[in-house]
DNA sequence: TAGATTGTTAATCGATTAACAATC
DNA sequence: TAGATTGTTAATCGATTAACAATC
């Protein structure tokens, strides 16, 4: 019953990878336990927030001592569902796709890109790192034969919707969309966007905010 | 006084690029006006939310008609501060850096990557698309001479903190961090993370959620 | 023991959503 | 005019933060 993470807030989910990276570092250093205070300090969060987040994993700490590092690591990995590796296919073998295929970090998230697909026939037969590139028309067969559930979409914006629908028709359950395009897909399909425009918009807004704040304060800064 | 966007909620900021893409499409098609209802429908949002978001730009609509497409476009671009182009430098000319340097979309965000830097001397002198690659030890001089304010960080995680500090010491105001590492930097520096792990964590959580929900419902799905 | 740290319960804060009057 | 759509004000919802008792 508490194996479902139905209730874990998205903001908490988003902080888990940061905890995980930090904790893995501590584990390498041989640290046995760590307090929420220390984690918070390191990540620029409030201790209370870290405790709330940790409580979502089901792990309990010891007052005055903190939490067991390896227990926390395991619990976060489990809560995220990163403990059993999932195969994914990549669509689009351009520069971004190439970078994603070669990204070293995925394996620690339990994600493995097993194949890439591209319309450009000249790319097919080649490899992106260890990932073989196939022609797009083999997509359907590959998904069926290999029971892949996740598609990573790194095609140009204009093709994104079309390719996404193709993926859905092939039975893909979740799409990680890197194309700067909002997809319209059936409710049942999980879509996660990683949009550079969105990210840069937040950066821009923060910069603009800071600028106007400095103006108001008469920019008493050191330079 | 209302040129500051101090009060605009981050979630609203994050939706602006989606509105912008859609509106630009409408402009190409020659549409003059659009209603919040239509925008909402297209993006899977509620009309009321779209109206709230739009109100942050200061644009007013006409009942029964909607909003003027080009007015909205201009207002969103202005609100995001994307109306005057900003130069940025890229640190790290690996696969990800290469993909970022070649990304076509940045110009429409008012972002221009003017130079890349890398420690690897063999990469220096080459180009990533149109972007020249320089040795890292020329970073400081380049920033000074060209008054660059934004740094795009695409180096390996282990080097991220060090390079970020270097950027800050060179006077960089904002860092867009693609390295899977949480940076500890002075308050005054704007940091925006684009973290694949975070994004994938959300995807994982949504999939897990959906899975357990289907279990409960006895998976009455079509396949 | 004393004090740091945990976990819980309640208060606050901010964003989303609802309700509804105004208006083209 | 009638009805769709806007903008505002209030209600709801969810996450963060505060307060504090429990405990090692």
Produce the secondary structure layout.
Two copies of one chain form a homodimer.
Chain A: H1 10-28, E1 33-34, H2 36-43, H3 47-55, E2 67-68, H4 69-80, E3 86-91, H5 95-102, E4 111-118, E5 127-128, E6 131-135, H6 139-146, E7 150-153, H7 157-169, E8 174-177, E9 190-193, H8 196-217
Parallel strand pairs in A: 3-4, 3-7, 4-6, 7-8, 8-9
Antiparallel strand pairs in A: 1-2, 5-6
Helix pairs in contact in A: 1-4, 2-3
Chain A binds a DNA duplex (24 and 24 nucleotides) through helix 3.
Structural class call of chain A reads alpha/beta
Give the mean pLDDT of chain A: 93
Helical segment count of chain A: 8
Assembly type of the chains comes to homodimer
Report Rg of chain A.
21 Å
Report the principal-axis shape of chain A.
globular
Features:
Arc Repressor Mutant, subunit A; homodimer; 223 residues; disordered N terminus; DNA-binding; Rossmann fold; 9 strands
Structure write-up:
Two copies of one chain form a homodimer. The first copy, chain A, is an alpha/beta fold. Chain A folds into two domains: 10-80, Arc Repressor Mutant, subunit A (Orthogonal Bundle), CATH 1.10.10; 86-197, Rossmann fold (3-Layer(aba) Sandwich), CATH 3.40.50.720. Helix content of chain A is 44%, strand content 17%. Chain A contains eight helices and nine strands. Chain A has helices at 10-28, 36-43, 47-55, 69-80, 95-102, 139-146, 157-169, 196-217; strands at 33-34, 67-68, 86-91, 111-118, 127-128, 131-135, 150-153, 174-177, 190-193. Chain A has a seven-stranded mixed sheet with strand order 5-6-4-3-7-8-9. In chain A, helix 1 (10-28) packs antiparallel against helix 4 and helix 2 (36-43) packs across helix 3 (47-55). The model of chain A is unreliable at 1-5 and 218-223 (pLDDT under 50). At the A-B interface, helix 1, helix 5 and helix 8 of A face helix 1, helix 5 and helix 8 of B. Chain A binds a DNA duplex (24 and 24 nucleotides) through helix 3.
């Amino acid at each position: 019953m508490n194996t479902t993470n139905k209730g874990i807030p998205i903001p908490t989910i988003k902080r888990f990878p940061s905890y995980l990276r930090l904790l893995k570092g501590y584990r390498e250093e041989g640290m046995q336990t760590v307090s929420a205070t220390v984690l918070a300090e390191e990540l620029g969060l409030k201790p209370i927030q870290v405790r709330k987040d940790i409580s979502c994993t089901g792990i309990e700490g010891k007052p005055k001592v903190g939490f067991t590092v390896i227990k926390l690591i395991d619990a976060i990995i489990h809560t995220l569902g990163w403990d059993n590796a999932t195969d994914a296919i990549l669509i689009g073998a351009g520069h971004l796709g190439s970078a994603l295929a070669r990204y070293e970090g995925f394996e620690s998230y339990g994600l493995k890109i097993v194949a890439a697909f591209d319309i450009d026939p000249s790319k097919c037969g080649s490899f992106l790192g260890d990932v073989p590139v196939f022609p797009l028309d083999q997509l359907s067969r590959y998904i069926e034969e290999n029971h892949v559930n996740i598609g990573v979409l790194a095609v140009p914006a204009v093709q994104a919707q079309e390719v996404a629908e193709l993926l859905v028709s092939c039975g893909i359950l979740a799409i990680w969309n890197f194309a700067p395009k909002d997809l319209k897909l059936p409710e049942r399909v999980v879509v996660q966007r990683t949009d550079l425009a969105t990210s840069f918009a937040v950066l821009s807004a923060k910069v603009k905010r800071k600028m106007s704040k400095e103006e108001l304060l008469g920019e008493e800064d050191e330079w």
